[in-house]
Amino acid sequence: MSANLKDTIVALATAPGVGAIAVVRISGDQALTIAAQLFRSIKGKDLRKQASHTILLGHIIEDEQVIDEVLLSLFKGPHSYTGENVVEISCHGSSYIQQRILSLAVKHGCRMAEPGEFTLRAFLNGKLDLSQAEAVADLIASDSAAAHQLAMNQMRGGFSSEIAKLREELLNFASLIELELDFAEEDVAFADRKAFEALVQRILFVLKRLIDSFAVGNVLKTGVPVAIIGEPNVGKSTLLNALLNEERALVSDIAGTTRDTVEDEISIGGIRFRFIDTAGIRVTTDVVEQMGIQKTFEKAGAAKVVLYLLSLEETANLAAVFTEIAQQKNRFPDKFVVVVLNKIDRLSEHFLAAFRDRFTTTFEGVSGLQFVGISARERSGVEALKTLLQSQVALGAIRSDETVVSNVRHFDALQQALDAMLRVDSGIKSNISSDLLAIDIKDALYYFGLITGQVTNDELLGNIFANFCIGK
Ligand code: GDP
């Protein structure tokens, strides 16, 4: 972050391009003074004399020429998003008008804002902690109900307030231990060891829970990867199209939405599922084809869910089919495998019921293996399959108040903090000296602080805020 934070900055807060309205945002000491030079209130009011949180109707004027009729919202620091004086100009959304207002603001003394600079200032002025600031970026990027919910939780404080509290307690102990070191010759103990041990256990517990939650959080944020595997012609493309088409039909109802870039994603119950492109799998002795199959398995390895598609004739050798199913499950022991029997439109009720029974008895007690019969072509059973997919994602975790970590940076810091706390824990147990203990405690404090932003450095801030869009 090389930019001068004392500058008054300006940026377009709305998406670039034409819209009904656009918002130009100015923040900094000089926001009101600069705005007063380019804005003339209809009622002749001096905006510098207005109370915070007022809205004025007026014109943007350059060299006595009216550029647009606008609404100007006024927020006086510290009662604004950035904590500084902020002016937001809602103008008509032509690109030309936007550009004129921006350049006018620059002419009168603003600097164009860097990406994320408004939020950076909000952070530096104590309006948000670092993880809340990051949640702002997540919120803007969220494109599914689950991702939105996660970002919202985190923005409201999420787990960072919990971390900040534990850090505070740990800091207290750290200073008591430091005190002991100062009085080392006199052999006094200021820190209550029992209470300290209890705190360490509490912190370990919280850290482990948060670290575990990342598995869910990350998947909810980035989508659940799903692989569809099965021999050629079992109907993999037909199923994928059935799933995707329905989604596209839904999406294209909303005017102006294009989803060209996410061809292979669907949203079920607010959770995104990403389909991994996998080639067909067939039992073969052909070496070249086997290599292809190997690749498919590797790709499927990245999935959380494997849909193993089958299509059968009623005359099929079921013993062989069930052996093959068991083998597939063995191949993906940690994944949720759904055996999808396709083309049931060609099968009798009787056969299907018998197959289902046999499946239930054969795989009783095997976890992470389910069965569903569908006809991809006639779209029957597809809903049941979707319900099954949805039930597999631990949605409960974010529906309740349980906090979920979805940010890789937080995950890394939490793991480092856990390592340090485990060292503290074993240090206590083996009765190591206080000065050694203090080193590990400091490490842990450092990593806790990285999450909330109590410990920062320019590089860290630069990395985080450079990923924001300009104007946020
Ligand atoms: P893939 O090679 O696994 O991707 O299989 P495709 O999706 O290309 O399907 C192979 C053939 O099976 C096509 O002719 C499909 O129309 C047909 N098919 C797919 N699903 C069904 C189904 O549910 N019922 C029937 N009867 N045919 C299907």
Automatic annotation (TrEMBL):
GTP binds at residues 233-238, 252-258, 277-280, 375-377. One of its GO terms (cellular component) is cytosol. It is an enzyme of class 3 (hydrolase). Mg(2+) binds at residues 237, 258. Pfam families: MMR_HSR1 (PF01926), MnmE_helical (PF12631), TrmE_N (PF10396). GO terms for molecular function: GTP binding; GTPase activity; identical protein binding; metal ion binding. It is found in: Cytoplasm. Keywords: Cytoplasm, GTP-binding, Hydrolase, Magnesium, Metal-binding, Nucleotide-binding, Potassium, tRNA processing. SUPFAM superfamilies: P-loop containing nucleoside triphosphate hydrolases, TrmE connector domain. It comes from the Bacteria. Binds 1 potassium ion per subunit. Its main location: cytoplasm. K(+) binds at residues 233, 252, 254, 257. (6S)-5-formyl-5,6,7,8-tetrahydrofolate binds at residues 25, 88, 127, 472. Its cofactor is K(+). Its EC number is 3.6.-.-. Exhibits a very high intrinsic GTPase hydrolysis rate. Involved in the addition of a carboxymethylaminomethyl (cmnm) group at the wobble position (U34) of certain tRNAs, forming tRNA-cmnm(5)s(2)U34. PANTHER family: TRNA MODIFICATION GTPASE GTPBP3, TRNA MODIFICATION GTPASE GTPBP3, MITOCHONDRIAL. Belongs to the TRAFAC class TrmE-Era-EngA-EngB-Septin-like GTPase superfamily. TrmE GTPase family. This is tRNA modification GTPase MnmE.
